[in-house]
Amino acid sequence: MTADQAEAGTITWSGPLNAPVGWSNSGFNASFLQPLSGGMGFRFTAKSSNTTELQRRIHLRVISATGLSGLQFAYHSGGWLRLFNAGAAWSAVASAFSGAFGLNARKWVTRYGGASGTYHSVFGPGNFSHEYALFRFPVGAGYDYGWIELSGFVSNGQGPDNSLGPRLTVESWAYDTSGAPIHAGDTGSAVPEPGSFALTGLAALSLGAAGMRRWRAARAS
Known about the structure:
5-stranded antiparallel beta sheet; 46% strand; disordered C terminus; single chain
């Protein structure tokens, strides 16, 4: 069974989230945590560190992704989360593991003493818009499959300026409870999770009259 053949109502979808993680002109957001079925879930975290080595001070800001309680992400062999275009499915995944993976990072170095000067660099996929992380988590003898829509930014610059990032936006997520390998971006006929989607005017338009009735019924139950 493919995601296009999945039975109606098997996809759980967050609806639009636009949840920020990391450093921006608006400030700092440390993390985004999303519990899923059976105690499993995922988390995106922003952390900074400062270390001193000989005649230099190293500053690092990192955004990472973590699969919780057995949830596995598709990843690159270098330990970085792998991103896919819309429509990708788990069949394209070469490596999957549960744990923490880097997503974007920025480093700057201040030298002093006899080796004065600066150095800065970035790591990870850099700037991207509406790309997808793929995940799976065990259910019985098989797996349920899902995706997370993400946008990211990082600028290669010196110093603690928040506008340089890195920052991440968790746009939305979904998973299929039928065991089908859902395609990235597919929501089927799913109604957004009641606790995840603020029903704004734009949201109401996107759902339509029938969708609004289902959404309201879900909130009342």
